[in-house]
Each structure stands twice: as structure tokens, then as C-alpha cells.
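Format notes (please read before filing issues)

Several people have asked whether sequences and C-alpha cells are stored in separate files. They are not. Every record keeps both together, in the order shown below: the sequence lines, then the C-alpha cell lines. Line labels are part of the format and must not be stripped during preprocessing.
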Amino acid sequence: MKRQLILLLFLLSALPMWAQIASEDEYTLIDDESCGCELYFVDSIQTTKRDGLFGFKLANGRELVTPQYMFVDQWHGDYCLVYRDYYQCGLINRQGKEVVPCIYREISYPAEGMIRVNQNDLIGFLHEDGSPAIPPQYRAASTFSENMAVVALDVDSFYVEYAWIDKEGNICLRNGYEYVYPFFNGYAVVKKYDRFGIIDTRGVEVVPIKYEFISGVDTNGIFIVRDPDGDKFALFSIQGFKAITPFRYDDFIGYGDGLYNYRKGDLQGYLDTRGREVFGTFTIAAPFSNGYAMVSRGDKYGIIDSRGHTVLPIEYDYHFNCPDGYLFHNGLAPVEKDGLVGFCNEAGQIVIPLQYEDCFGFHDSRAPVKKNGLWGYIDTDGSQVVPFVFRFASPFKYGRAEVVSDLNVHKINISGKCVKACQGFPQY
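Then the structure lines:
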């Protein structure tokens, strides 16, 4: 149990990192003949490779960091993790300076001016400029959130207690908690005696520690609570810390565009942020994304918008293998009927006829589609842009896609030209 709790805390503390990853729009992919590989420019800094080691150069070609690292991460804002070995991790800034030398087993990106580091399996913190702040001493710790970090304190050889420290390493809150979440908007979920509650920054219980489960508070000020008997779920609001729905739901299975997906018996549906059931019930009610959601009744599928209006009638099938089915990408969604696949637009009109055996969604304005047992690519007008000659074709990402010809895997650009592993590539 102790090991599991420590692992959970590490996973939780990693969450803020992913929020900093650059979006696709910030990337530019190029082919670098100096290393025979594909490299990304992120905010005008490029990863480069020479003699098996990684470095960085600017878009104008000037070398920023001589290749010297075994591994490098993607840039996260002003910083990038670099590794001289598997357990020698450091941090460089956009000027190419090692702000944190490569002497740590693990480093987290700066959060609230503090860098979490792992040295000899103990966690401590540095200031953002790399100077020491809190010596490594904790078995586990989160990054800082709202000027506090969660740390695991070894009470004895069997028991771990969780508490919060400030940026000087002083313990702010400690009350024998078995597990805690970092503070968010002034509140934190805590666990004690296998029951969950919520406290404020003074340590006052604003939701009693009596529930079977409590999720973190989301950006709407809503959180999910499982009743003390552990049978049903409800939504609570941070306003007044009261239930906005009864405990009558079997599960909450997703969230998107201000709507919560619930499951009640064999049916699914949606709740708004006031706890009201909207749009009726479905066999499947998928989370909303960019204003649309896939729904089904029985074995038929369709699409609704965030006002509950039917965009695509619930009369289509879902037997194809497409993970993007009924999801819009580049303004088009794959749909299937009677064993054939095509695409509809956001008005629900079938604009690319149902004529393919399988597909993926559009990415980079290209979609892989299968016809007569072979894969090729079409554009958003439905025109063929890469012939049907492959045994398999993947969606594009950053202007590249992988295709399989015989037993060979190749990489192509959006024009269909092979740019990597081109031996045996079919001629067309």
C-alpha cells in the first residue's frame, strides 16, 4: 500500500507538466540531412543529432548547444530536460545554459518558481535559477501549487503520512492524512481512515471526511462524490459545498464542453454545471469535444451538438475500426452505414460519399482510407492525394505519416513522397 501511494503521488505531481507541452501549431517538422532524421523546431529552437548525441540549434542554423546529451525532452516554455545518462538529468534554458547540472535522477519543470529534483531517491527542491531551496529528504513530493507542495513523511517503516510544506520547507498542514491532493483554487481533497473529504488552506474541513471517494475540484468548481455506502455518485459544487444532484448515478464517465457524462443503469446521458439532466438518455453518450458528441440508441449512432440538437441522425453504424469515428477533425467526421465509410461535415451533410472500407479521421487535411483492401489518402474535398497501394496507413501528425508496403514501414509527407526508410517504397 505504501508503495502504491507513493507511485500515485508521483503520477499526480506530473500532471502540471503536460499542461505546458507546446501545441501542434507551435511545431515545424523538417528533414535534417546532417543526421538523416526528422527534427522539430519549437519556438525557433531545433533538436539536432550528431554521432548519437543530441544538441540544439537555432532556426538560422547557429549552434546553440553542441551535441552532448544522450536524450533530450521537448521544450516546455523556457526550459528543456537533458540527460547525459539514464540517471544524470539536468535542465537547460533557451540560452543553452545548464540551469540545473546533470546530476539528478529526476527533475520536474519549474512550477511557481521551484524545481523538484530527485537525488539518491530522495526529493528536494531548487529555486528556478538552480540554487538550492529545500534539501532532498522526502520519499515522494508533488510540485508546488498555490505556494505549497505535498510531501510524504515516513512515520515508521510501514506508515506514510502526507502533509504540505511551504517554499522554505516548513510544514504548513499535517493531520495524519493517508493521502492528499495538491491545493487547487484554495481547496484540497484529503483521505483519512479510507474516507475522503475536502479541506481549505487553513486545514478546516469544508466537506466532511466521510465519503467513499471524492474527485479533484474542476475548473467549474464541481467535483464528484461517492456516497458513504459506496453505491452511487453525485455532483457537488464548491459553492456551499453541497450536492447539486442526488446520489443516484452509477458512474461519471467523462466531461467536455461544460457537460458531464453520467451512467445510470443501462443508460447514459449528460448533466450541465447546475446538475440538470439535459438532452435525454442514450445507450452511449460520449464526451463532447469542440461542441459535438457521438451518441447511440441501440446499435445506431449519430452526432448531437452542445445544445442537444441532432446534427447527424441516429441511424448510422459503428463496425469499422476507426478510433476517430463520429469525431470532427478538420471539420469532418468519419461515419459508417451498411459497411461503407464516408465523412460528414458539421452540418451533418455527407460530403465525402460512403464508399470506403475503413478510415481514420482527418489530420493535416489528409485522411487515410481503405478501398479494395488497400490504403491511400484523400484530402478534405474527397480527392485522392496518395494512391491506394499500402497494406496500412496511419494518420498524419506534424506533416508525416507511416505507411506499410509489403513488410516495410516507410514515412511519407503530405504530398505522398517517401522521406524516411524508402527502400522498397512503391512507385506511383
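For reference, the curators noted about this record: Residues 320 and 358 are 6 Å apart (CA to CA). The chain has a mean pLDDT of 89.
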